[in-house]
Amino acid sequence: MPNQTARIYAVSEVTHYIKHVLEDDHILSGLQVVGEVSNLTYHSSGHVYFSIKDQGAQLSCVMFRSYAQQAPRIQAGDRVILQGSISVYAPRGHYQLMVHKIQKEGTGDLFQRFLALKEKLKNEGLFDEKHKKSLPFLPRTIAILTSPTGAAIRDILQTLKRRFEGVKVILLPTVVQGPQGAPAIIKNLEEAADISADLIILGRGGGSIEDLWNFNEESVARAIFACPIPIIVGIGHETDFTIADFVADVRASTPTAAAERSVPDKQALQEGLVVLQRQMEQSLQHYIDFKRQVLDDYSYRLQKQVDGYLQQKRHEVALLSTQLASLDVKQRLQQGYTLTLKGGKVLQHGAEILTGETLETIFSDKRITSTVTATQDSNL
User: Looking only at Cα atoms, what is the longest distance across the chain?
Assistant: First the structure.
């Protein structure tokens, strides 16, 4: 029977107490542990979950994204030295090592050399954005510097073909690992410049810090910086960083990503052109409609002016017609006036008539011939 006076604790209370005890322990809050990596998962969130083990036990570990981005990439079977603190994941009641730093056994000196060279070149300005060359929108010739037999070249070529088939590709087979790697990279960078490539892709697949060390050599970094051709570096996996990444004009997370950055997507461009064509046609139709409206307005205003002009002229013609009608001899004759002619000439003054002359008088309906017998002045 349980002790009736003993307190009964909730699960969460027990777990939080254990969490408090473990996380407040000065040894467990900042310790180094050595072991072999197993059960490794690089999560899409950027966090890394794994265990380290020895012959007698294993310890669950987690490295959050902010630390994982600065850490070397590991793989199952690697022997590593971890720095971190013990914590409890309450929802599962598991204790785990929250890792802040990973160092592969035997690579500590290389990592220190990496950091020292990175700081040196950064202070010299080799990483400054002002030195980065712009990538061509659509390069005509791309020089690829990588191993001709690795997975990287296959991924790059497939990606280029999928995105924009027809771009000229020149493979410069390059040793990317071992003592011959750095000289080979430098030599092929110079060759790519000599053949006037528009763009260089420098890439290789993932690996340990030793595998990628050629891309951390100072001579390679300075050759990349001095190259007149824009360079995209795609080395290893997303979490792998080398000195070449910082010096290059563009850093891609993988060789495939480097190929994607090097050329546009032809299908997307074609779809964009269709949209632009439709927009241009609509804009042109709007322009034509607008100009037609302007033309209609001008036509209306012109017709209005013409109608006004014609109306004015019709009025003037009517006035002239009235004036002409008033001068019509027949109308005057019908009003009771007559015309007197002498020798066929219309007489305007009586002084032109002499006694004994023959005159012709025209009425509206008859002509009369008469002889003048006498004249006298008019009293009108």
Answer: 180
- Is domain 11-105 classified as CATH 3.40.190.10? no
Nearest to 227, CA basis, from 297, 147, 131: 131
Residue with tokens 């340990």: 208
Q: Strand ranges (DSSP E) for 221-284?
A: 231-235, 250-252
CA dist 49 → 30, 52, 104, 308 (Å): 19, 10, 17, 92
Judge contact between 225 and 167, C-beta under 8 A: no
**Which three-class secondary structure state does DSSP give residue 74?**
coil
The string of pLDDT tens digits covering residues 68-126 is 998 888 887 788 999 999 999 888 888 999 999 998 875 556 777 888 999 999 999 99
The phi, psi pair for 26, rounded to 5°, reads -70, -25
Token digits of residue 9: 């604790």
Superfamily holding 111-126+139-264? Succinyl-CoA synthetase domains (3.40.50.261)
Q: How does DSSP classify residue 57?
A: -
Sorted by sequence, the CB contacts under 8 Å of residue 355 that are 6+ apart come out as: 372, 373, 374, 375
Residue 376 three-state SS = coil
pLDDT digits over 229-252, tens only? 999 999 988 777 899 999 999 999
DSSP secondary structure letter of residue 71: S
Closest CA to 254 of 155, 180, 349, 124: 155
Distance CA 255, CA 150 (A): 11
CATH 3.40.50.261 residue ranges for the chain: 111-126+139-264
Model pLDDT, residue 355:
85
Q: Say how far apart CA 61 and CA 69 lie, in whole Å.
A: 16
Residue 275 DSSP class: H
Q: Which helix (H) or strand (E) holds 156?
A: helix 151-164
Query: Residue with structure tokens 């056994």?
Result: 105
Choose among 213, 220, 239: nearest CA to 71. 239
DSSP code at position 29: T
Length of the chain: 380
